[in-house]
Write the structure tokens for this entry.
Amino acid sequence: MTAQPRPATLGDLKRAGYQARGVKEEMRRNLLRRLEDGGELFPGIVGYDDTVIPQIINAILARQNFILLGLRGQAKSRIIRQLVALLDDEVPIIAGSEVNDDPFRPISKHGRVLVETHGDDTPIEWLPRDARYVEKLATPDVTIADIIGDVDPIRAARGGHILSDELTIHYGLLPRANRGIFALNELPDLAGKIQVGLFNIMQEGDIQIKGYPVRMPLDVLLVFTANPEDYTARGKIITPLKDRIGAEIITHYPESLQIGIDITAQEAWVERGGKPVDIPEFVSEMIERIAFLAREDKRIDQRSGVSQRMPITVTETAVSNAERRAITCGEAVVVPRPTDLYAALPSITGKIELEYEGEMVGAQKIARELVTHAAGATFRAWGGESVSDEVDMIVDHFDRGNVLQLGDTTAASAVLEVFRGVPGLIEVVRELALARDDSPPHMVAACELVLEALVSDRRLSRTEGGRYGRRNGP
């Protein structure tokens, strides 16, 4: 059976029985269909199933504009970009329209004139869903011309129009998002007069360019993002605009360690296409605990937040350090160790903003402490308190003056032989089932966790160069 050609004119649309819907109604119906079918609404978004996503669904079902309010690294931009999936595959527009004119209800002078002139022979084009999404990052230098539009004197001269003629307008991003989604990131950074233009067009559907009023009832879903810190640090959302936003949806960081681990595993680039990568479970847990501890540390500015990008980049850097070691030492599998996290300190220091007290200590020292404390918390979570006798043997070994120098480029087989000389260390690893198997890379990683945990508990000392020895002080 031959497929029917798509309508190419306004008359073809009428004969096909096409019925145009507003974009909010269109998204509402598509969302209802998804809910009925049980399909996944926001693939790749982890940890929001019971909080953020239901609120977004409610806002769309209510046909409301909304804002996602949250700290950096909380998937706000990723969520709004996935809203495109709720649009129809394509919609008809008047051919050549800059503002995606609905053939049945054109809003631009170009569209109205074309329909008046050609009637049912008005040519149409089909606009795919991806072309119906417009996104803009708000910055203080954004102008009315960028968002709404401006008079184009060259267009006026070429067309023989007076400047007050609507045909002389060069439309901005918002009119060009007509019949689609307009997303504005970091809304508080937008100048107040631009925000006024936004709420005016949201409520009354009219715009003013160079003093010339133009009636343009846009059909658009407006979605915004903002960081709470920006309300005081750089700007604010003006009250009339805030009043016209239907829903304020609060995003958040992972509420549990496991959710954070799942997000990091999903996002981090660890499959390098070379040697296979095998990350021990306790290493993944330790990395995630670094972020959780940083979000509680009073020396770190919590108004700025600690992005979920931190554990992602720490994982990637730790894997890279382990990859370098595996290649140098000829190891078959890349297995990151706790000490590889010290090689990832630049991925931590670049992701935290410090309070005054933290500035006095320094980002590098705080980052090292976070790694050490994460090791201690992870060891306890794996039952470290149940092996106190063996741990005492390890501590006693170092208290008698023994030292251990570890390098992050030493082969696992060589390091494991050194660890076997520490009484109680291998026994702790086996009793707590820290190592996935008896292979040197996994055994070494597990032994390092034990030593790092003892440093966290101040029972051992560790230099920046990786030298373990007796505890400092009483």
About this structure: The chain has 22 helices and 14 strands.
